């Protein structure tokens, strides 16, 4: 286990810090730009609900999940749980304490607190981890097991399917809630009308966006929004007071993941479109 590994730390942001921030300042605080590098695991530690997000671009040689010095832990999952989504096109393998789990494209693995050795092979994996107070079993979950919910419409440019993987009525966890939303070709908008959830932080990781295209991600208080232009395989951290929604210049998918006070997906403050500023 690599113990000298350091993560980038992002401190929490209050909403009154946002007015006046330059584009660059917004990006430094909320956008994770470089999560994937060949043969490496890259992690970012946010103080928003102590969520860790990361990426592993594993080739033919296994890549271990490092334990950042910042965690002051014996191993990464000593006090944490982990969600893994294969965001590549090919299937890949996640090995947890000697047991291999094969993940196809867009499939998910929940890894419970206490697992000591996690390694990745032959795929591109997005990771989200939150603190955990107890152990839940490590479980693989495929798209078909996720009870897909089709939302939106073609006329609204937001025809999309939400796959809930880790949630109160699905794969059990301590606080992590995680799923994937896939937009139909021709649909560009996610999460509109948008919402906040004062009790949970959320991170959106956009993927499957063709080269040269971007997602315009809206964040901030509903009456004081800003935008962040996001490329493929980048993530935006959304503090509990911030809306999180966006439109792409082409269809895309995204992993959404939350941690915080509760796991109630519906516990949101809905924002009417006309209230947004
Ligand atoms: O497209 C959507 O709408 C979403 O995927 C919304 C996310 O699931 C979300 O923001 C959950 O709080
Ligand atoms: Zn949300």
From TrEMBL:
A Pfam family the protein falls into: KduI
Cofactor(s) the protein needs: Zn(2+)
Annotated keywords: Isomerase, Metal-binding, Zinc
Domain of life, source organism: Bacteria
The protein's annotated pathway: Glycan metabolism; pectin degradation; 2-dehydro-3-deoxy-D-gluconate from pectin: step 4/5
Enzyme class: isomerase
Presence of keyword DNA-binding: no
Molecular function via GO: 4-deoxy-L-threo-5-hexosulose-uronate ketol-isomerase activity; zinc ion binding
PANTHER family for the chain: 4-DEOXY-L-THREO-5-HEXOSULOSE-URONATE KETOL-ISOMERASE (PTHR38461:SF1)
Similarity comment text for this entry: Belongs to the KduI family.
Database matches in NCBIfam families: PRK00924.1
Protein name: 4-deoxy-L-threo-5-hexosulose-uronate ketol-isomerase
Organism whose genome encodes this protein: Sphaerisporangium rufum
Gene transcribed to yield this protein: kduI
